[in-house]
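User: Here's a chain of 866 residues. Predict its fold as tokens.
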Amino acid sequence: MMENSIGNVRPVTIEDEMQVSYLDYAMSVIVQRALPDVRDGLKPVHRRILHAMNELGLGAGARYRKSAAVVGEVLGKYHPHGDVAVYDTLVRMAQDFSMRYPLIDGQGNFGSVDGDSPAAMRYTEARMTAIAEELLTDLNRDTVDMKENYDGTQREPTVLPAKLPHLLLNGANGIAVGMATNIPPHNLREICDGITLLIRNPDATLTELTEIIKGPDFPTAGTLYGGVGIRAAYATGRGRMILRAETHVEEVRSGRTAIIVTELPYQVNKALLQERIAELVNERRLEGIADMRDESDRQGMRLVIELKRDAQVDAVLNGLFKHTAMQSAISVNMLALVDDQPRVLSLEQMLRHYIAHRRNVVTRRTQYELRGARERAHIREGLLIAIGHIDEVIALIRGSASSEAAFHGLIGRFGLSEEQARAILEMRLSRIAALERQRLADELEELRQQIAHLEGILADAHRVDEVIIGELEDLKARFGDERRTRIVPAEIDDLTDADLIAPEEVVVTMTTRGYIKRLPATTYQAQGRGGKGILGMVMREADAVEHVFVTNTHDNVLFFTNKGRVFRLKVYEVPEAGRTARGVPVANIIAAEPGERVTTALTYPADRTDGYIVMATTRGTIKRTALQEFRNVRRTGIIAIGLAEDDELAWVQLSDGDEHILLITNDGRAIRFRQSDVRAMGRPAGGVRGIELRDDDVVVAMGLAKPGGDVLVVTANGYGKRTSLAEYPVQRRGGCGVATIRPSDKIGPIVAASIAADSHGEMILMSAGGKVIRQPVGQVSRIGRATQGVRVMDLRDGDSVVSMAFIGNGATDENGENGNGEASAMAPSAEADNGAIDVVEQVSDADLADDDVAGSEEAEPETPEE
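Assistant: Prediction complete.
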């Protein structure tokens, strides 16, 4: 340190100088470069670009100008930094994959989501978008403060009027000294509605706000996980959430399966993502990928990741999400400038600062318009005074020695102001015409009404708020659009495998020896009636397909065993296998006891809690239990029904509680009775008698009936028919039923039966030899109840039909439910209707007089409950 001052040199320690200089530099970076202002949501460079383009007249309806001209205007007048920084900012404002609502309408190459560089600024052209103009509206009406530019030759706004809440709409990110901001973009409609709520209800809670503003809305869409993270960000200004790519599975060339990526997380470079995937495959850290290609075009993104034939789709997706940018963490830090001071803000605070800014802008604009209206009214009042005394005014002017004398004469004679006197002297003689006089009077009256209106706004804060709300409604109508990013409230730490698996309609099959598998329903193509089918499974000796059911990967599946126990899994937990593969032993996925086998299964949506589970046994016992009783099924299984020693549980369906029950026997008998005849029981109960059986007869199908549909039955030898359910009378529980088919050696006994809701669906039949056929239900002939039917499947010698399932409107919809919201159900070597059986119509007393009715109207005694 120097001991004495010499001229202008003063002694200072280097530590003090570094501290002061660095703090000055840090504040300059924070305020002038890196952080957005909470009011208009813009950094200085963005604000200067828009202001310069506005001064150049480059609005949404103007001709495009070279980007170089815009950059030069910004550099020369407002932003003394490098041209690269300005042009890069302009480019990003034009990219629809970077900005939720682009502010620049660019013409030329402005880069791509693959990370391609934009063309040089001498090649590209630009103008503002219509939505950007809303940030500058009323700038020339004294709505914001102006300041001198860096060299004092120009004036620039300190902030824009910002009719749009831009900070939340397009978000912001930047790194300052010792701090950073990362504000995600949002949906315009939601933000406008949230502001409206806060204006009308200043005491609105965060919960009420988040019911409207559900979360960030990224320009590249994707799926956002993290309800707690979103709420934390909105409550404190800081939070973390997960954004995932949108994918689905398709079958591509040669029967190969491929993962199709249609949306990527925000700011993910597609080309770098492909390089990363290829690197993981080469390092064998990601198995199951055979090929990858980019098929993106103008219609949208399409990245095809082709899988090997033996690859597990779920496992590959898990790996992609874990090791690549297909899953990205979004760390929210809502830091913005408030009165030139950096502050971390909650959602409510951001909205309140914006509302305060708009109130100030609307007030200043109204004051500006009021001043102008008063000035114009004042002038017109003077003109009308002059016209009313036109002869005297003309004589005074004519008699004056000069215009200055006339000016003072008018003021002294008529008591006019200087502005009025000057306007009278400049008035053209044509204004004294009668029509012009009336026009002046009308204009003055309009101005007085306008003045009263503007004064009313300034006198009432609520009217200022209504002006703001009206402007927001206008913005919503002109620029609002649907949300792009889907939000899943689950936290990433709480996510299960289900969150990684796309909903898909699948077919699950199980053999008599307990091998189970699932595969996409699209594997089986529709064929005509009597077709040969395709090979659905290569069978081993002494094994045959026993169950087939169609469901959704996200549904629950309950496995019911012959011993009356039940196990629950997710459908996606059933291993996927090829079309001809047997699958895996069911014992590997449920904890069945020795000698216990799965006899039926039931699927239903995971979020369903209402309804009843209706169960039937081979000996004709029926039972009804509330679905809620099965909400906590252990992996080791629980008791579903108490059984007699010679009986087995065989059929289970989910009901709404008001359907009829239909039981069909091997020997061609059927009974239909009201479900209300079976009272709800607890899980260990044994049920009641549903049908009286002959000694050698057993039940082969059970279904639930609502209005509409036909009874569809199929026999062991491949014969089937449809019969209107109206031909089946309603009886009391416990009778012997009526004839449903006339069995013979030619057609064999009934092995499968169901109700087809209409003729537009398709059914899948599977034989003991593993053959599968898929055909429209409408191709099965509709004939009488006691007839033998027609051939529906051509079988080889020794083969026989064992099960049936439906796809489409025949029984279920795309969610695995039928039109009545009932879950799918399958029966062993019998029914596979994937939905409850439906009744056609109400039955009259005359219907009960059918000659084929073999049972009594009186119910048999109930079997004792356990």
